Amino acid sequence: MQAISLFRKTSHQESGFYALFLTNRIQMLYYMIVMPSALVQPYMLLAIVAMGIASQFCLYMLSKWFVTPYPAQGYQGFERLFGKTGIKILALVSLPLLLLKFSFISVSYADIMQKFVFPSMDREWHIVFPFILSCYLALFGMENMVRFVTVVFFGTIWIFFLYIPFFSVQSNSIHDLYPLIPIGPEPFAWKSLLLVFSSLSGPEFLIAISYWLNPQRKMLKYLTIANAISVGEYLFISIASLLFYGSKYLPTIKYPNVEMGRYLQSPIFERVDIILISAYMFSFLYSIALFVLMIYGASRLLGKTKTSTTRIGLIVSGCVAMAVTIPISKWFWEPGLEQAVWLDLQMWAGSATYLLFPLLIWIAIKRKARTTS
Amino acid sequence: MKCIFRTTIVLLSTSMIMLVCGCDLLPENNMIEEITPIIFWSVQGGGEEDGKITISTLVPPLIKEKKRVLSLKVSLLNEGNKGFNLTYYNELKAGQIRLLFVDEAYAKRGLTRLINTVLTDPNISQRLYLVITKGNFNEFLAKHLGETDNIDYYLYRMFKHYEKKKQGEITVVNLHQFMKMLYSQVSDPQLPVFRAEGEQFLYEGTAFFDRDSMVTEIRGKDDQIIQLLYRDRFVRYLVLPDLAVTLGHIRARTRKKLTPDLSSLSIEIDVKGRIDELNSLARIEDNFQYAALTRKIERYLEENVIRLLSQMQKLQIDPLQIGELTAKPFSKPITRATWDRHWSTMKINVKVRLHLEPLTKVK
């Protein structure tokens, strides 16, 4: 049997498109989950734009990292920047964050799956089956995974076009999008701003896989395009659902964009929403696989890095993530209170990492530049 | 040794997963020969002191078999669904349900409870047509039990037909539209009204709601005139017996405008169409007479629109969604109470402009 190496790198071709697709897909991961609780008021459209600009600022810091010579050196690059202990601390900090993200998206997706596709099936199955598929994907190794994002991107971007018919529904009127500024009877929710910011988070994980992205000088351009596409998609879907439901009816619906898919009619399929959820699964599976690989990588950094990677190691670290996720789904995912706590936790964690990781790395680069010169 | 270790891990994790998730994957049986996907529910009653409703449906749908009306007296809607399963040999599935007929008396007491039950069922689509019925609907069903008489399916096709191209022939409202109108800040919903009479099911007009309970209905000619007031509707025939005229192929474009202080409303309706029928064709000899007739029809439509709108004002209902015009990009949305106060005293100006195609080919 050929020795496998999950984290090897063979190609050195420069391309920013992988980073573009990755950034966009990771940012779009939340739109089905976050929509219901945050983006229900018309003024949130402006909030999406504002948070898009804030996210652009984070991406700017991130692009500073890509122009340095460190990412191309892989592990050695990080070692030169942070030292051996620094890396261990970073891995230790990011491991629970990765586990949280992993659990949150798997359980949320399983929830959607259970609600719309198989209402009588246990939710845990919807966590286990995608996980097995993701493990299969992850076994191809990091380099193949990074390349695979192209397929994922083109396999899911079309979902966006499904929402075009909602702009021409008869009961629509432009008045559903008013007022554009927060002067309604409800107080302005600052938390929802943070929620939008956290749903745009995710690109900070590119730092960990920057070695395979073959970074180059023009990274900012690709990251900006990705961010703009994400903001555009969020805006488009929010406007469609506001027009379709109106701002009073929208908050009462848990998964508006799936319900909208349900409303679509097709001469062939009765349930367009099932196709939609399955397509959404594509990008979901991909990110789960990516996170499993990252969890494995981070736990290797904590232990011995010199030994070669094994399949069993990857599966075991995936199973550890499962061991965290399934109890959450089984005992700590009561609708209402507990789900709100998880959403809050994810919101704070996502926003914090998106802001702090690029900042940290930017400061580290600055410090290094000062000490060497 | 290593191989045994691996197999143990795989087996152990598989059994752990099975243990955690339970073994029954899909506890629902959807064998097609053993289920009956019904097309409609009909709800009546609710007026008696025990608050019981009668729920009925027609089985089996779309196969060449003698039909049966299932009917139960229950206090909860889903008690009826369960009851149906116990009285019929197949399991009834609500996944294909397309129509919900509600008796007028029930609708007058408020639809919220019924609608909420239907909405929370994940199997039921938002494209469920809501219909108000008068007369004895069960008796009507009892006359359509033949093997090839798929009355439930054909009723569904009728609604679907008129919904598709936004025709103003009959009012068609589905669950989603009803809910959107119900939830809108200041406006009220509307539903079509049908009368069951012996073998027939006749379109009567449109029911207007105050929040969730039906308050009034308009019929015949009034219903046709109201259709013109919606955004961009097509009306096949507008029969005006008072003027002995039928207008045909009408496309109406309506602009509604509220003054900022909500003291008056102006409605401009541009009606394009042609005269399809005229009792006194002989008397139209020149363009002056033609223009005079046009003028007459315009006046007539204006008067009727104002009459219908003032009827709505009296009842403080807003089925035409005029209240949504109060939403502005940079100002606070108004409350229902404020809107009702302004709406009931609002001055209404209506301007109808008729663009009729010239009469040709007539003697």
TrEMBL record, chain A:
Bilayer topology: Multi-pass membrane protein
Pfam families: Spore_permease
Keywords from the UniProt entry: Germination, Membrane, Transmembrane, Transmembrane helix, Transport
Keyword Transport included in the entry's annotation: yes
Entry keyword annotation includes Transcription: no
InterPro entries per the UniProt record, alphabetical: Spore_GerAB
Annotated localization: Membrane
Any one Gene Ontology BP term: spore germination
GO-annotated cellular components: membrane
Transmembrane segments annotated in the record for this chain: 16-33, 45-67, 87-105, 125-141, 148-168, 188-213, 225-245, 274-298, 310-333, 345-365
Family according to the record: Belongs to the amino acid-polyamine-organocation (APC) superfamily. Spore germination protein (SGP) (TC 2.A.3.9) family.
Name of this protein: Spore germination protein
Species, as recorded: Paenibacillus taihuensis
Taxonomic placement: Bacteria, Bacillati, Bacillota, Bacilli, Bacillales
From TrEMBL, chain B:
Cellular localization per UniProt: Membrane
Domain Spore germination GerAC-like C-terminal as annotated: residue spans: 204-356
Swiss-Prot/TrEMBL keywords: Germination, Lipoprotein, Membrane, Palmitate, Signal
A Gene Ontology cellular-component term: membrane
Residues covered by the Spore germination protein N-terminal domain: 32-195
Signal peptide: none
Primary localisation category: membrane
Entry annotated with the keyword Hydrolase: no
Domain of life of the organism encoding this protein: Bacteria
One Pfam family hit: Spore_GerAC_N
GO BP terms: spore germination
Membrane topology per record: Lipid-anchor
PROSITE patterns attached to this UniProt entry: PROKAR_LIPOPROTEIN
Similarity field: Belongs to the GerABKC lipoprotein family.
Alphabetical list of PANTHER family matching this protein: SPORE GERMINATION PROTEIN B3
Protein name: Spore germination protein
